[in-house]
């Protein structure tokens, strides 16, 4: 008999949909002791939140997140709000003894993030941050290969996250989906939204960073603000590129922008070691490119591994070998890992503490982008 685990979700945007879908599907494919129950969803607009609850099968709604985190029938709070609310909701949820699943990035800055870590650690509640790309089977497979030492000494790590949806100067900032352009709600632009993903994966695969040097740019300086109706200064970074030294001696190169015409969500990374290299591309997410220096002779070359066999991470839970899965499954895997952590009492990675490292790197990147100097990672 499975045990219910009651979810209370705050926010219902794009991420609210990906998470709800994952909660609904997970126990059809993973044999978990706990089964998520969509107990309540919370947002300020009552009519809209009721519509969302009906679509996804939430049992009830709230319009004030404070009420939600105090409800006795909720076990876990899922934070899917704009970034400026993560801190207050997480602290209140932890004080009420709730487990927490928080959307990325953890917080607006490392100071907030540290307070959030202390709150969940003091309360002793299970906590995780939705850096979902770790849970793509090909990316988890890359982690296995690296941990097995197959690449040997690592020399280079490079990653890109390219989009093009904010090029129009007529696009307003603030409110609904456009809070990502408003620094007051998002904290930063592409650094917290997109590079945070690249940094999370990089630190997971290649270890901690020592220092960074960055350049940031805001191409459109003013936009109408949806909440005030006025034209206001844009304070987010539209584009950011940075170099870093990893603690293992390798060099890192990262680029992210929302101004790469033709690219919608092109996340790629490559890692080069003395014995081999690995490449991955979100647009082909079920494949891992692998080069092995041992393959001597005329047959040497890059291998494109279709990560769909039952001995590949997570894949034994899905269809049959050769049939691929997609973007939404990374969230299903995250929920499966979360439920396993709850059952076994083990940390669910990335934890708040793991994600604080990403937050510190984002802060250092933004600091360096302003100063033009190298910034050390605290
Ligand atoms: C922004 O467009 C966005 O939706 C991010 O917020 C997500 O984290 C990223 O995975 C895709 O792009």
In short:
The protein is an alpha/beta fold and 378 residues long. Helices cover 34% and strands 25% of the residues. It has two domains: 3-132, Rossmann fold; 134-376, 2-Layer Sandwich (Dihydrodipicolinate Reductase, domain 2), CATH 3.30.360.
If you had to describe this structure to a student in words, what would you say it looks like?
With 378 residues, this protein is an alpha/beta fold. It has two domains: 130 residues, Rossmann fold, CATH 3.40.50; 243 residues, Dihydrodipicolinate Reductase, domain 2. Helices cover 34% and strands 25% of the residues. It is built from ten helices and 17 strands. The strands form three sheets. It has a nine-stranded mixed β-sheet with strand order 16-15-14-13-7-12-11-8-17. A six-stranded parallel β-sheet has the order 3-2-1-4-5-6, with helices on both faces. A two-stranded antiparallel ribbon has the order 9-10. Helix 4 links the parallel strand 4 and strand 5. Helix 4 runs parallel beside helix 5 and helix 5 runs antiparallel to helix 10. The radius of gyration is 21 Å and the shape is globular. The site of alpha-L-sorbopyranose (SOE) has 5 residues, from helix 8.
